[in-house]
Hints:
Number of helices: 4
Number of strands: 8
Helix content: 25-40%
Mean pLDDT: 95
Largest sheet: 8 strands, mixed
Strand content: 25-35%
Amino acid sequence: MNEFARKKRVLELSRRVNAGDLDAVVEMYAPDAVLEDPVGLPPLTGHDAVRAHYALLLSAHLREEAAEPVAGQDATHALLQITSVMDYLPLGPEYAARGWLKAPGSPGTARLERTAMLVVRMDKSGLVQHLKSYWGTSDLTVLG
């Protein structure tokens, strides 16, 4: 895939997330794809794990705002900065338990905002083979 095609594919992944279409998101991944989000936790491998991960995020009404992607010169990678907003529940309590943020007074109405850099490796057909999401605790904010 050329640079423009890879940039278009990572934006399409974000578009599908925003559409809330779980099946369409999973279709973007190779059957043996690896997803690391956040880096530091065990990687998720395969469609079932990818589906479970995105099902949890989509249940929290995840919305992403994507910046202009950057393509690697290696003919396989694209990078995309995203700012995502989702409900505090269900993931927020886990983040608070790890000390990554302070729990809000009203978890049922609070939202989380996170800025991350996605490093995406694709195969020649455009399927995601490996996605790493890089972010730190300073990139995570409780809204409300």
